[in-house]
Amino acid sequence: MNLLINLIPKDWTIIIFDEKRKIIDQIIWNAKWQESDTLFGKLEEIVAKNKLKFENISKIIVINWPWWFTWTRTTSLIINTIRYLHKNIKLYPCDFFKFGELMWKKYPMLIKANKREYLVKDKVESKPEIKIIDEIAKWNYFWIWDNIDFENKNIWIKLELDYSKFLQNFVFGQDTDIIRPIYIKEPNITC
């Protein structure tokens, strides 16, 4: 069995899928303000519910960028600890934009970075850029929104996620030993 972990949208998701990439089970929850408290418990819950143990997991796909600073550190630590304890597990990171591509989303894509900024990627080969809401062209990103109000600077994101399509299109290439934190902006921490 395998896991897909998506902690990018407001509602976090853990999916168990088999070797044929069929979704067996999923758990969805809102972890706002409880990020570091809920992930491991939810992982244990879905694994136990399906009468599995972590040593029964072969692969873990982690949608691992972009995240908020605390999520990045916490989830990387939890996933890497599981991998450290169970060496048979192969880790596969996938960023949000690649995740969107594999569900046949079209560019340009964006995701909220903070209260006034968005991470924008205009095309496959471009690098994501941080833009304030005033710099985002109106209606360019309409396919991703549920409600848009550029005049009042309100944007409500409603992602249409097709995990089955993503799993069918995901290529299991070279796995990694650890999930590395990738930040929208590097943390400003000094010793």
Task: Explain what you see.
A hairpin with a 7-residue loop joins strand 7 and strand 8. It contains four helices and ten strands; from the N terminus they run E-E-E-H-E-H-E-H-E-E-E-E-E-H. It has helices at 35-49, 69-85, 96-102, 163-169; strands spanning 2-6, 11-17, 23-30, 59-65, 90-95, 109-112, 117-121, 129-132, 145-149, 154-157. It has a five-stranded mixed β-sheet with strand order 3-2-1-4-5. A three-stranded antiparallel β-sheet has the order 6-7-8, with no helix packed on it. Strands 9-10 form a two-stranded antiparallel ribbon. It folds into two domains: 1-95 and 164-191, ATPase, nucleotide binding domain (Nucleotidyltransferase, domain 5); 104-160, no CATH class. Helix 1 runs parallel beside helix 2 and helix 3 (96-102) crosses helix 4 (163-169). It is α+β, with helices and mostly antiparallel strands and 191 residues long. 24% of the residues lie in helices and 29% in strands.
